[in-house]
Specification:
Blueprint: H1 2-7, E1 12-15, E2 22-29, E3 32-39, H2 43-64, H3 73-79, E4 86-87, H4 90-105, H5 115-121, H6 135-139, E5 148-151, E6 154-157, H7 170-184, E7 190-194, E8 197-201, E9 209-215, E10 218-228, E11 232-238, E12 243-246, E13 249-252, E14 266-273, H8 276-289, H9 294-299, E15 304-308, E16 313-315, H10 317-320, E17 323-325
Antiparallel strand pairs: 1-2, 2-3, 3-7, 4-6, 5-6, 7-8, 8-11, 9-10, 10-17, 11-14, 12-13, 14-15, 15-16
Helix pairs in contact: 2-7, 7-8
This protein binds adenosine monophosphate (AMP) and magnesium ion (MG).
Length: 327
Amino acid sequence: MAGMFRLFPVLFLLVSCSNSADMHETRFIMGTLVEFTVADADPELAENAIRQAAEEMQRIDDMFTIYRERDNSVKRFNRSRPGTSVRLDNEVARILSLALAIQQESNGAFNPALGRLNRLWGFSMEPLPSHPPSEDAIRASIPPAGCIRKDGNEWSRTSERCELDFGAIAKGYAIDRGIAVLRRAGIQHAIINAGGDIRVIGSHHGKPWRIGLRHPRSAGDVLGTIEVKGDVSIVTSGDYERFYIDRGRRYHHILDPESGHPAALSQSATVIAETATLADAWSTALFVLGPTGLKLLERRQMPALVVDRRGRLHVNGPMRAIFQPAS
Ligand code: AMP
Ligand code: MG
């Protein structure tokens, strides 16, 4: 944490002009700008709560990331000899169990064992690569099915191609932990927005919070808006987040575990769920599944939408009830 905060020592405290009762603060965590908005709270209490929430989110990032120097149980698992047992942190084990369940429920679209393949493509590195890897290298980095094994409190892998990567779920979990800390500190009305992945609690001075969904090809525009009150998470996966264009083709960071290539059916996928952890995992799964995945989420009563590869919007039943398309 210290490293990140030393780089960004200034607290961006912007009290919005339009509504002096809202407090906004922005921190750089998990490689993205995280915006905290708190309404109807004492400013000192809110500032303290936000600081604690940001520290908690940084703790989660440190625990799950495989892309920084510092060691953690995820990296130890990824270095382990196949067949040998590794003790994962309790929170990592809990999120991994959930990730494996979602892998099953999404027919393999979500896969927490793509670490090696993700590293090969290099979308989490700086600078981004400019060409795709060879087909041979891709084939050699796809993990075998069912490669993560659980034995009591210990975990093991069956193959060196099997490396954990929580990039598609840990940000959601960090948001959930951030909200838990805000609440514990006495905050009732807030939004945490981590680069478009959002959880809201309470209301905005008695009115619903209004959330705009980004257009995947036109950064300044919205697809539409959703009005939400209470405790709701809204997460979007998009091919515009980390990508490069090579010979006219877009290569982006959400991979189809079957082909080993960037998933080709969607430009963006948005899921609303009870927790940001679930919304994060399912939006990545839905992005891979494309429009046909919308039914799967409808059966779970999760509002969802997909912008398909041609830019057409598909909305499931629960989403239709709350989504207002931009005119
Ligand atoms: P998100 O932005 O939440 O959709 O997550 C994308 C990140 O999750 C990537 O940067 C990878 O680290 C990882 N990832 C890519 N494809 C998948 C997948 N099919 N299932 C699970 N994680 C993935
Ligand atoms: Mg995700």
